[in-house]
């Protein structure tokens, strides 16, 4: 890896690397599943040479409201959250989905984000990407046990149906409330997160979707999660205030702009 490339890595990449260096129990990225370890050497300003993971390149949606900001794709945030929670350095490439550049369509023929580069190959789809990250970089483990992996999985589709609905008596609000209520009960019984005390992949998938739900329904429907679901409310607050979430969340104005076509449609 060239010095220029190392210098182009983000501050977040460096700080994540330093975390690895300071906490040796956090295994550095790269294990037997990685054919070419993603490791480089970095000479720090103090003259120390430390092992540094080469940042993983990841293409994500760009903001439509503010230049050089991350956009409102919940699948991209899911991948970024996974990278953050695993303390992996990454190099984010913002893609204007309204005017997709040629280089992007070459690596993502379907024109979708997120895509990530593993071993010189670009891989799409947040399900596939997060699963691969778990296999390649198992520490800290983020897997959700199979029996809990689908908790909350109908929330996004019921949220979209309610958001698009123009008929208050079509049952879409109740369908969403039923799903939210089931999640509230699950959190009440299981702990702070879907799999108990520790955050896991299911939370990292659901968190960005709940963030979209909160912003879009407040804006377009003047609707908010009822006080009768306190465990869900505190679950959302806990996830939304995590450093990893604050660092990777979309701007509320982008979330609002992103859902406008669906609401108007
Ligand atoms: N199943 C995919 C969905 C990805 C997806 O739908 N991404 C949207 C942005 S949120 C996209 O790239 N859309 C293409 C476009 O808007 O042209 C995943 O989980 O990664």
TrEMBL record:
<protein>
    <recommendedName>
        <fullName>Dehydroascorbate reductase</fullName>
    </recommendedName>
</protein>
<dbReference type="Pfam" id="PF13410">
    <property type="entry name" value="GST_C_2"/>
</dbReference>
<feature type="domain" description="GST C-terminal">
    <location>
        <begin position="119"/>
        <end position="265"/>
    </location>
</feature>
<keyword id="KW-0216">Detoxification</keyword>
<dbReference type="InterPro" id="IPR040079">
    <property type="entry name" value="Glutathione_S-Trfase"/>
</dbReference>
<dbReference type="GO" id="GO:0004364">
    <property type="term" value="F:glutathione transferase activity"/>
</dbReference>
<keyword id="KW-0560">Oxidoreductase</keyword>
<dbReference type="InterPro" id="IPR036282">
    <property type="entry name" value="Glutathione-S-Trfase_C_sf"/>
</dbReference>
<dbReference type="InterPro" id="IPR036249">
    <property type="entry name" value="Thioredoxin-like_sf"/>
</dbReference>
<dbReference type="GO" id="GO:0033355">
    <property type="term" value="P:ascorbate glutathione cycle"/>
</dbReference>
<dbReference type="GO" id="GO:0140547">
    <property type="term" value="P:acquisition of seed longevity"/>
</dbReference>
<keyword id="KW-0318">Glutathionylation</keyword>
<dbReference type="InterPro" id="IPR044627">
    <property type="entry name" value="DHAR1/2/3/4"/>
</dbReference>
<feature type="domain" description="GST N-terminal">
    <location>
        <begin position="63"/>
        <end position="141"/>
    </location>
</feature>
<dbReference type="Pfam" id="PF13417">
    <property type="entry name" value="GST_N_3"/>
</dbReference>
<keyword id="KW-0808">Transferase</keyword>
<comment type="similarity">
    <text>Belongs to the GST superfamily. DHAR family.</text>
</comment>
<dbReference type="GO" id="GO:0045174">
    <property type="term" value="F:glutathione dehydrogenase (ascorbate) activity"/>
</dbReference>
<dbReference type="InterPro" id="IPR010987">
    <property type="entry name" value="Glutathione-S-Trfase_C-like"/>
</dbReference>
<dbReference type="InterPro" id="IPR004045">
    <property type="entry name" value="Glutathione_S-Trfase_N"/>
</dbReference>
């Amino acid at each position: 890896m060239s010095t220029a490339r190392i210098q182009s890595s983000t501050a977040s990449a460096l700080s994540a690397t330093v975390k690895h260096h300071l906490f040796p129990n956090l295994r550095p990225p790269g294990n037997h599943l990685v054919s070419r370890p993603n490791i480089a050497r970095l000479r720090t300003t103090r003259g120390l040479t430390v092992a540094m993971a080469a940042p993983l390149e990841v293409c994500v949606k760009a903001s439509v409201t503010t230049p050089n900001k991350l956009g409102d794709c919940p699948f991209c945030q899911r991948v970024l959250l996974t990278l953050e929670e695993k303390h992996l350095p990454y190099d984010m490439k913002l893609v204007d989905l309204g005017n997709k550049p040629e280089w992007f369509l070459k690596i993502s023929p379907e024109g979708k984000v997120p895509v990530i580069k593993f071993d010189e190959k670009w891989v799409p789809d947040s399900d596939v990407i997060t699963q691969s990250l778990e296999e390649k970089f198992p520490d800290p483990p983020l897997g959700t046990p199979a029996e809990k992996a689908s908790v909350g999985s109908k929330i996004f589709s019921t949220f979209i149906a309610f958001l698009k609905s123009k008929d208050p008596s079509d049952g879409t609000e109740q369908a969403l409330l039923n799903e939210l209520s089931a999640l509230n009960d699950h959190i009440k019984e299981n702990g702070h997160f879907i799999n108990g005390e520790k955050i896991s992949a299911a939370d990292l998938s659901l968190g960005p979707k709940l963030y979209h739900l909160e912003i879009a329904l407040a804006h377009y429907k003047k609707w908010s999660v009822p006080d009768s679901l306190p465990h869900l409310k505190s679950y959302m607050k806990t996830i939304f205030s995590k450093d990893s979430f604050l660092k990777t969340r979309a701007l509320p104005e982008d979330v609002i702009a992103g859902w406008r076509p669906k609401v108007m449609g």
